[in-house]
Design brief:
9 helices, mainly alpha
Length: about 270
């Protein structure tokens, strides 16, 4: 299984290495080449990102109906899922579209991991340091104090990107997504610095995308709240009381139109 997976990822690893070499040959340091690679990948994923934004808009527009379905079938999860899937089909909603950019980036993430692992064993020509406080982008991110700065920026960018992309999630799911970056930090700390730099850059791209989306998409207007009722406010259907305290008689729903008044003409006397 592992050998077959490596065989599938090997062409992608070679492709990423050639792209990084090309970006480095035009004058970019290796770390900035990784940032440029991240931007190129996100630009190629723009069509999937547009579908993701449309899916989120549709989910937000139909959120009240979906919450009503969840409330109605709260005790029967299977029935609730069936009704939600039916609702998705009727309204042409694809909830999986919001995950497409993340899924499409996963092979790039794995391919870049193996590329940087090769860099650590066989360093390419050129300096692998970054901003004079990261010894090598191929080394583990915690191998130097600068790596902890990268980890802190990664966590903040992950929290910010989760905030912008979790508009349709339930409160419990949103809390889990906010906690995950802190739980994964022990796993991310074992990755090469260049890989964390790639993920940090894609998170910052997502934050910028969320800011632009919120500015371009108008907010859904909320219905104005009705007037507050107090104990002295009369009910809608009942007329207000008269001065003597008795309730006024309700008006008839339909009044009979008044008959026109007949005027009798006096007869002229005959001569």
């Amino acid at each position: 299984m592992t050998v077959a997976l490596l065989a599938l990822l090997q062409p992608l690893e070679h492709l990423l290495r050639h792209v990084l070499n090309g970006l480095h040959q035009i004058g970019l340091p290796w770390a900035w080449a990784i940032i440029a690679l991240t931007i190129l990948v996100r630009m190629l994923l723009v069509p999937l990102t547009v579908r993701q934004i449309h899916s989120m808009q549709s989910m937000q527009a139909h959120a009240p109906q979906m919450k009503e379905i969840q409330r109605k079938y709260k005790g029967d999860r299977q029935k609730m899922n069936e009704e939600l899937m039916k609702f998705y089909r009727e309204n042409n909603i694809n909830p999986a579209a919001s995950c497409l950019p993340l899924v499409a980036q996963f092979p790039v993430f794995i391919g870049l991991y193996y590329t940087l692992r090769t860099f650590s064993k066989e360093p390419p020509p050129g300096d692998l340091s970054w901003l004079h406080f990261i010894p090598s982008i191929a080394d583990k991110v915690t191998s130097h104090w600068g790596g902890y700065v990268i980890l802190a920026v990664y966590v903040l960018s992950q929290l910010a990107s989760t905030y912008f992309m979790s508009g349709t999630m339930q409160q419990s799911q949103r809390v889990i997504m906010m906690v995950l970056p802190f739980a994964f930090i022990f796993v991310i700390a074992r990755f090469p610095t260049g890989l964390v730099l790639y993920w940090m850059t894609t998170n910052l791209w997502t934050v910028g995308q969320g800011l632009i989306t919120r500015r371009l998409i108008p907010k859904t207007p909320q219905p104005a709240p009705g007037p507050k009722r107090s104990s002295r406010t009369p009910p809608k259907d009942e007329p207000p009381p008269t001065e003597d305290g008795a309730a006024a008689e309700p008006k008839a729903a339909a009044q009979t139109p008044a008959q026109p008044r007949r005027v009798k003409r006096k007869k002229k006397a005959r001569r």
